[in-house]
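Ticket 4471: requesting a sanity check on a complex prediction with nickel (II) ion. Repro inputs:
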Amino acid sequence: MNKNKKDVKVEIKKGSMDEWPEPIVRVQSLAESNLSSLPDRYIKPASQRPTTTEEAPAATNIPIIDLEGLFSEEGTSDDVIMARISEACREWGFFQVLNHGVRPELMDAARESWREFFHLPVNAKETYSNSPRTYEGYGSRLGVEKGAILDWSDYYYLHLLPPRLKDFNKWPSFPPTIREVIDEYGKELVNLSGRIMRVLSSNLGLKEDKFQAAFGGENIGACLRVNYYPKCPRPELALGLSSHSDPGGMTILLPDDQVFGLQVRKDDTWITVKPHPHAFIVNIGDQIQILSNSTYKSVEHRVIVNSEKERVSLAFFYNPKSDIPIQPLQELVSTHSPPLYPPMTFDQYRLFIRTQGPRGKSHVESHVSPR
Ligand code: OGA
Ligand code: NI
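Returned structure tokens:
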């Protein structure tokens, strides 16, 4: 089980995080140059291409859960909804939520503001270019390994919390209302995350604020990655985002309302998520898998692209305070079920993905306690 441990040990050479190993090419520029073929750097090995892995029947979808009533004032919880969330966290690691309390107009405004931003010419966005040290700003790759096969997407990454990392100057200023829209959207998603965290704790028989406390209480981190997947000339050879599990606590995704793309692994098949109008897609990240001692699953997912339509998605990440050790909760371990993971801070943990880029579940699977 531990044989890969040495290979994935994170060693950061001094200075290696200050810049990208190769000049950055914007995927938007490639897409707009009417290429007849796909550049080699985007051609995935045959085993990772979307068409070579078995796909589930088109009607299959991740669970869709209506939260109506769950968050009512009296604090009454609906056992059926709670049980469905519990099963989704254990069996799927992914579910869609309806009646989540965030206004549909705000969801649309957030996504369409970002679409306008990405429609700016590339050179207007270069002032926001990011570096691998913080990832903040406009980016076109994850990971700093030279020669890596890249994903067919550009993105924008920014911090919402903690307050000391939230810096409007690092956010886009076009379209003119984008900052206030992101700000309001971020606050709503922090609230929604807090409510879902209470459900996740209760469902494990814990006090409802247990997960939140383990995340550092008020001092949690929250950030947004907006993904822009341009049209791709050879979608069968590429991926918009390679298979990965999310390193943080929990993710709330607002998908494109017109274009499919997200695929979730269920056993050995890939399920293409069919988004319900104005639903959010919630998924468990590695830190909650670790806290729950693997009762809840942080599941692999990836994004496929197409030649007809671009796609925009907003991934909101709800994370533990970055410098406190995260390990299985004491209440969930015993001699019969020993802790599966040693303590590690999220700052340390996320270096895996920041240096190596998306690599399925290898990060959390190599982070296991010695036997
Ligand atoms: C992510 C992610 C999925 C999507 O940003 O981590 O998995 O549909 N995004 O863009
Ligand atoms: Ni993800």
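Notes from triage: The pocket of N-oxalylglycine (ligand 1) is lined by residues 225, 227, 241, 246, 253, 255, 261-262, 301, 303, 313, 315 (CB under 6 Å). Leaving this open until the requester confirms.
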